[in-house]
Amino acid sequence: MNADLLIRRATLPDGHHDVDVLALAGRIAAVGAAGERLAAPPGTPELDAAGALLSPPFVDAHFHLDATLSHGLPRINSSGTLLEGIALWGELKPQLTEEAIAERALQYCDWAVARGLLAIRSHVDICDERLLAVRALLAVKKRVAPYLDLQLVAFPQDGLLRSPGAWANLQRALDLGVDVVGGIPHFERTMAEGARSVELLCELAAARGLPVDMHCDESDDPLSRHIETLALHTQRLGLHGRVTGSHLTSMHSMDNYYVSKLLPLIAEAGVHAVANPLINITLQGRHDHYPKRRGMTRVPELMAAGVNVGFGHDCVMDPWYALGSADMLEVASMGLHVAQMTSAQGQRQCFDAVTVNNARILGLQGYGLLPGCRADFVLLQAGSPEEAIRLRAQRLAVVRGGQVVSRMAPAVAELALPGRPTRVDFRCQPQPAQHAGTGNPSLK
Ligand code: FE2
Fold first, then answer.
1. Which fold has domain 5-55+373-443?
2. With 50 as the cut, is the pLDDT of residue 250 above it?
3. Less packed terminus of the chain by CB within 10 Å, N or C?
4. What's the CA-to-centroid distance between 62 and ligand 1, angstroms?
5. How far is the CA of 314 from the centre of ligand 1 (A)?
């Protein structure tokens, strides 16, 4: 999609108000100063933001598109644990068809676009001789490419060394066009085999020139330390900036002294970290009595150490999680709460964790609000990133390559109370656009 569009009177995430943004041929051509009205070629469509927040689109750095929307098939996860979820997925796998996987994935991508989520890194299970899910998601990737960037990770769900054929299947998946090397060291038979899997997978990625994104230490075991091994091999093989450790939940339970050594090692290797707040808070700590651990990795501490940390949705209506609707603001909100990132800076960091930080993890080109970037946006019914999280703001418009691909009406309640306003939208900041216009974005 390479269209022209002039967006009027937007608020930007950096706090600038009343800003025009001009998109030409799918790219940002100009960003005006506050109050400056940009000119556009005759006939250019206009979107009046009316003071709403214009952000680059949401990005999800960790998802499972092959399992999404399969909740209840063939049964529900009764213990709520990661391990029962893996077993349940194993029961479902023989019943899967390529068509059913693709159909559910496409439906999820529709939800994603409507939520302003235009880039997703999805793991795809390769522990299946037929590689059904790989073929299905490669077809989906091609189908959605005009409106959504889908990046696929070859994920040995049942263990690279533990599952017969996984090593060969993983390489077949990469040969078919899967983008990233995945792993699951904490699910191998022993710590030693987990470490060996990390070594093998990093070497494979180095040989093929591919990024790495591993499920790593997704447990409550304080001695699960595969992230240390992942940082080591990233350093050894010169993979800085190309490797991601996903989940890292054991870090929540680790000895504090050990973590003080570990954090600089992760930062030094340039390993990205992904927390999955909705899933970590529900799957972890299931074996605890009270007090129960939260189980999310140490997000503010990783950020303070200089590590790029993103948030992922991980699951929506699948064997591990019965909820969700592609809402990255819900993800940011849960991350904010679990990590107690309630300060103004912490809230802003949580917004970054579902936008710019994830874009870095995926290596997206042309992401942002600078001239030359892709004209991809989400227009939110909010006046700031913090307010967007608080309200899980309505996605008033979603733009891909300068073309509006989704619209949603503002969330406004009509009140009938004596002596009180007739409309309420839960915003408490002044809404400058309401003084100048209708307060509702409009497309001309
Ligand atoms: Fe995952």
1. Urease, subunit C; domain 1 (2.30.40)
2. yes
3. C
4. 6
5. 5
